[in-house]
Amino acid sequence: MNAWEMRALRRTLRCAMCGEPIEAGGRWYDMPDGMSLCAESDCLEEWAAAYLRLRPAFDEEEEP
Description:
Order of helices and strands: HEEH
Number of strands: 2
Largest sheet: 2 strands, antiparallel
Strand content: 5-15%
């Protein structure tokens, strides 16, 4: 374990979406944008909602 990891364990880790503390031994996601999200909630789904897209259906699919 490096010094950064040791320092991270000492501070109170909170979920960036719901604000709940992530307890010792708890699991979380380190997101590419620097946010930490708790793993036992819907926070990951809420974070991903901004990236969700729906491709419209077409009558005829184009062939390559």
